[in-house]
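We were asked to recover a plausible sequence for a given structure. The inputs and outputs are reproduced exactly as logged, with field labels preserved.

PROBLEM: sequence recovery
POSITIONS: 215
GIVEN STRUCTURE:
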């Protein structure tokens, strides 16, 4: 168990937020009061010595929290309430401050960056087809050229899960734009333990990529 030098702000969406979400003309799912309560969001903030610091925290972070909460349901900013004000924030959200935060699994990844690092390490050490661990210096890599590299540019140097069908997911790595792999046309790279698994990937991956390109 590890003590985190953070306090936590818990956000619960109230009826005005629910009414806004359900009033969007996008045919999305319905947001019920029960779902809004069940799916609350926690934001970590600097450690608070006094509960009165909740006011100071909201003075600093309310707009960031407001925008994140709106984007979680609808990314198009022209659908957001305008203007975003502190008064609207207070009407749309219940806020609770928790003084002490403990991490009961300190050995597990905590941040998105740590999860990304763990996934990348797994992808380069395991066969993307059969999932067995590949020893250093063994195995091979199977690279594929993407029809639209820009679509995946935000994942450069990171992993991308690809649905191969039949509940099989292959974990590949998007090559860096200035890497030798990218220059040679290998935009999307998978680790393979044997030539057999490489052949299986070279057959399955192009089909999966074509499905992604379909409208």
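RECOVERED SEQUENCE:
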């Amino acid at each position: 168990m590890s003590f985190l030098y953070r306090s936590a702000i818990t956000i619960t969406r109230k009826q005005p937020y629910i009414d806004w979400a359900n009033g969007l003309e996008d045919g999305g799912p319905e947001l019920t009061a029960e779902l809004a309560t069940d799916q609350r969001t926690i934001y970590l903030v600097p450690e608070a010595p006094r509960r009165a610091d909740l006011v100071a925290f909201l003075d600093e972070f309310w707009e960031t929290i407001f925008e994140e909460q709106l984007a979680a349901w609808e990314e198009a900013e022209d659908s957001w309430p305008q203007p975003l004000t502190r008064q609207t924030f207070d009407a749309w959200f219940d806020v609770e401050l928790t003084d002490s935060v403990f991490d009961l699994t300190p050995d597990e990844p905590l941040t998105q960056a740590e999860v990304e690092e763990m996934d990348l390490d797994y992808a380069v050490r395991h066969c993307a087809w059969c999932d067995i661990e590949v020893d250093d210096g063994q195995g091979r890599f199977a690279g594929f050229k993407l029809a639209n590299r820009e679509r995946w540019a935000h994942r450069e140097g990171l992993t991308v899960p690809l649905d191969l069908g039949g509940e099989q997911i292959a974990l590949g790595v998007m090559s860096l734009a200035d890497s030798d792999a990218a220059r040679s046309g290998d935009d999307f790279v998978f680790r393979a333990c044997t030539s057999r698994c490489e052949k299986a990937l070279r057959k399955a991956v192009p089909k999966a990529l074509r499905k992604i390109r379909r409208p």
